[in-house]
Amino acid sequence: MQTTTLFRITNFELFAKPNKYVMGFGLVAITACVSYIAYMNTR
C-alpha cells in the first residue's frame, strides 16, 4: 500500500506498534482526570 508522509504523520497510530506501557499510563492519566473532575463537581 502506497502512502504519503503526510498520511503517515496524521495517522500515526495506524503505523505504530501498540505499546502496553504507554497504554497503561494513558489509562491511568485519563482515569485520574475524570476522577478529579467528578470530585470537583461534587464539592
UniProtKB/TrEMBL annotation:
It comes from the Eukaryota. Keywords: Membrane, Transmembrane, Transmembrane helix. It is a single-pass membrane protein. Its main location: membrane. It is found in: Membrane. The keyword Membrane applies. The chain crosses the membrane at residues 21-39. GO terms for cellular component: membrane. Belongs to the SMIM8 family. This is Small integral membrane protein 8. It comes from Leptotrombidium deliense.
